[in-house]
Amino acid sequence: MSAAYIIDARRTAGGKRGGALRDWHPADLGASILDALAERSGIDPSAIDDVIVGCVSQVGEQSFHIGRNMVMASSLPDSVPAVSIDRQCGSSQQAVHFAAQAVMSGTQDVVIAAGVESMTRVPMGTPVILPMQAGIGTGPWPASIKQRYGVTEFSQFTGAEMIARHYGFTRDQLDSFALDSHRKGAEAIEAGAFADEILVLEGLDREGATIRHDRDEGVRGNATMEGLADLKTLVADGVITAGNASQICDGASGVLIASERAVKDHGLTPIARIDHLTVTAGDPVIMLMEPIPATRRALERSGRAIGDIDLFEVNEAFAPVPLAWLRELEADPDRLNVNGGAIALGHPLGASGTKLMATLVHALRARGKRFGLQTMCEGGGIANLTIVEAL
């Protein structure tokens, strides 16, 4: 079976809701990543066999096949096909899996896995809200599903609260984790740790003037425990707040994956190798716990121990998720989200998978480390897990 190599991994800096990226159409935002991957890798764009794009809210400006529209908005030739996929927050991580599987099977040689989400222009929940407002249908879950699981709806906020209660995490513990995410993010920005992964774009400041958008807008280096403590919980008697949950974010990201044959034929220089791919599913009600069994299965199948992994990227959808993961896996917290996570840097839904991959691969190389593990909790109780080897 052919190896799957990562040739390049790029992302935009995160934009806050209504922030620097507010004027970017999602197709143009995603196209900028496609162009950047082709240009920096030196690949002939016509050699790209496919583009696989993750996007969660495929409605409005992200509808009518956002993947193909990204190709059409880019400099890639019309001969490059594309597909749009939705595995909720893991959409573009699944795009990486599909791309790697295509390359490893020998059916394709050069594939871009990418993701895009403009949470400003296509707000979270829009695909559900619009039909309901128009009086069309009853929502995504029929009565049969609600009866089976004994719920009226499936909520990640509820799942996060359930995890916190299960492990006895206090509000202070969650806020402390969030504060650490902001600290690490701010330190990474000041150290230039994201320079190799961020594609610099033109953005807008608050007054509408053009600015250089090259840093994640959501990072608050001056955050304090007192400030976090002042935030209201999302549900009564809960512990989850906007401060210890991931930030709404606009962004795009992508990874160029190639076979060994393509590396030789096109003179490409790999920066990492896909080492292992796993996806699992479990309880759709608590839903956010699945990275734990996914990690256990991946370690068993890959023959590795948690101590063999140098860096971890566990998406910070809500603080209880990575905290529970650390406890169950008995993992080293100093290896987790070393440049901050989604609480500070933002969570652009469909773009987060390849966003985290870009950060993980570049962090491994910057530190001279070898193996990295990335996992993501996803709606419906699913989790992707990817292990990469930096080169």
From TrEMBL:
The keyword Transferase applies. One of its GO terms (molecular function) is acetyl-CoA C-acyltransferase activity. Residues 268-389 form the Thiolase C-terminal domain. It comes from the Bacteria. InterPro entries: Thiolase, Thiolase-like, Thiolase_C, Thiolase_CS, Thiolase_N. Pfam families: Thiolase_C, Thiolase_N. Residues 5-260 form the Thiolase N-terminal domain. The keyword Acyltransferase applies. The active site is at 89 (acyl-thioester intermediate), 347 (proton acceptor), 377 (proton acceptor). Keywords: Acyltransferase, Transferase. Belongs to the thiolase-like superfamily. Thiolase family. NCBIfam families: AcCoA-C-Actrans (TIGR01930), PRK06504.1 (NF005077). This is Acetyl-CoA C-acetyltransferase.
